[in-house]
Fold this sequence. Notes:
This protein has helices spanning about 25-40, 60-70, 90-105, 120-125, 135-155; strands at about 15-20, 50-55, 75-80, 110-120.
Amino acid sequence: MKTLQGAFVGAGRKVAIVAGRFNDFLVQSLIKGAVDCLVRHGARDDDIAVVRVPGAFEIPPVAQMLAESESYDAVVCLGCVIRGDTPHFEYVAGEAAKGIARAAATTGVPVIFGILTAETIEQAVERAGTKAGNRGADAALAALEMIDLYAQIRKRS
Length: 157
């Protein structure tokens, strides 16, 4: 039996990070975690591009454009949506998730969902670099793994 799984190699990889500015005090921490993870795994600062958009809803079309550009090996999508008293949370989080999944499925480039969806600010803070780790770093690690896995699958095809 042959098992395929990706390695966490950043050297020579070009990664775009699309990040929403909404809840920026949390998203900045996600960006920092993602960049730190990529660099620790061998990526060069010059091979990482951070693209800022207004919020999570605007992330998918920009992620799609970056993936289609053939300039990046992966696109990491970072943002933060916190539930409020209106259905806004469901619309924004749901559409962001669908759009990111569509970009990943249609471009052949790993497009990683790293958007925090939290019930409270406290939960978001925990996932943005305190008690529960840093989801930005987790998303960057997933991007590296998927870049390598995609390469292995293409090589076998």
